[in-house]
């Protein structure tokens, strides 16, 4: 079956890896959040794309979630000794990727093309598509002022209190080549267990993508990022509290209202009232966990299609 999945962050990458290991999936397309992208030290950095590429090619640092396994940090040590910014850690191997991607983008290649070449070079069978080749930047309005995503997430470690989130450039952004087609052609569409407000909303903010979810004949199933009413990783429930939203699956389903046909959620949590739902143990630690959650989502999609 053809599967298309919207993904961002570490949780999203785990779910996509699970899908990659399901033999029912013979065509997999990931539409990846680029709202976290930023220029740092003159380089174009695409964290959610890189986390997914590293994860799908078995290079990811599993405990850290982002970056490469077995990384060395000579660049960061030298940068720090020179008084450079050391809040955003760039491993030596990771750095090579950022340098080459920046050079290719400055030569006029699109982020999509550069990403596709990396996926091919690393033997990744899935199509990894940025949500857009245009610049879209996630900003958070906080009690410390307006912060671009990485300043909030890494530099300030998600401590600021958020009152609003916006996606600069989204209104003029176009879906990257293949994005809308992959939503129209899919037999099933999934929204990965990424942070709905920080990692999925930027994707839905690109004009045309939310409509494509509404119009596709495929069932659209979101996987809740909550496990036992908490976020597995990152600021999801803290953010929900700050935005005045209850940390439950009613709120998650409500956030995607009109876009999804069902919500797959953790067995420990109550189902949403108004949306078709199924549950399984959604915590993904081992590869078997990731495959179990992916397969539960596939079975749910097939049940909704029948
Ligand atoms: N996250 C951190 O918490 N600290 C870091 O120093 C850091 C560096 C980093 C470098 C490359 C990269 O692709 C991701 C990196 N991340 C880091 C994670 C990143 O901020 C997040 O993965 C996403 O932006 C949110 O999902």
Structure, explained:
This protein is α/β, with parallel strands linked by helices and 306 residues long. The chain has one domain (2-39, 129-305): Rossmann fold, CATH 3.40.50.10680. Helices cover 39% and strands 20% of the residues. It has twelve helices and 14 strands. The protein has helices spanning 9-20, 47-56, 74-81, 92-106, 111-121, 149-155, 179-185, 196-204, 209-215, 236-242, 249-255, 287-305, and strands at residues 2-7, 27-32, 38-40, 43-45, 127-130, 137-142, 145-148, 162-168, 188-191, 220-223, 226-227, 230-231, 262-266, 277-280. The protein has a seven-stranded parallel β-sheet with strand order 5-2-1-9-10-13-14, with helices on both faces. A three-stranded antiparallel β-sheet has the order 7-6-8. The chain is globular, with a radius of gyration of 18 Å. The two termini are 14 Å apart. The model has no long low-confidence stretch (mean pLDDT 97). Bound molecules: ligand FO1. Ligand FO1 binds next to helix 2 and helix 6.
């Amino acid at each position: 079956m053809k599967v298309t999945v919207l993904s961002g962050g570490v949780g999203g990458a785990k779910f996509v890896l699970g899908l990659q290991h399901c033999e029912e999936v013979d065509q997999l397309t990931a539409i990846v959040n680029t709202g976290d992208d930023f220029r740092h030290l003159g380089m174009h950095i695409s964290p959610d794309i890189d986390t997914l590429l590293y994860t799908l090619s078995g290079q990811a640092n599993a405990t850290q979630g982002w970056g490469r396994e077995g990384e060395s940090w000579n660049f960061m040590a030298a940068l720090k000794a020179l008084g450079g910014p050391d809040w955003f850690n760039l491993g030596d191997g990771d750095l090579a990727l950022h340098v080459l991607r920046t050079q290719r983008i400055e030569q006029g290649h699109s982020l999509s093309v550069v990403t596709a070449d990396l996926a091919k070079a690393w033997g990744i069978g899935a199509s990894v598509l940025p949500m857009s080749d245009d610049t879209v930047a996630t900003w958070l309005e906080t009690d410390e002022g307006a912060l671009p995503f990485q300043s909030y997430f890494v530099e300030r470690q998600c401590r600021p209190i958020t009152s609003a989130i916006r996606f600069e450039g989204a209104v003029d952004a176009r879906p990257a080549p293949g994005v809308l087609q992959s939503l129209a052609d899919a037999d099933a569409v999934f929204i990965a267990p990424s942070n709905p407000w920080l990692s999925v909303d930027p994707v839905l903010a690109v004009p045309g993508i939310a409509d494509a979810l509404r119009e596709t004949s495929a069932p659209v199933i979101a996987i809740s990022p909550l496990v036992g009413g908490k976020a597995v990783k990152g600021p999801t429930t803290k953010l929900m509290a700050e935005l005045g939203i209850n940390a439950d699956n009613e709120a998650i389903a409500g956030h995607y209202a009109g876009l999804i046909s069902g919500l797959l959620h953790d067995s420990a949590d109550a189902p949403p009232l108004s949306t078709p739902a199924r549950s399984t143990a959604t915590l993904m630690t081992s590869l078997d966990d990731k495959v179990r959650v992916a397969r539960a989502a596939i079975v749910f999609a097939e049940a909704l299609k029948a």
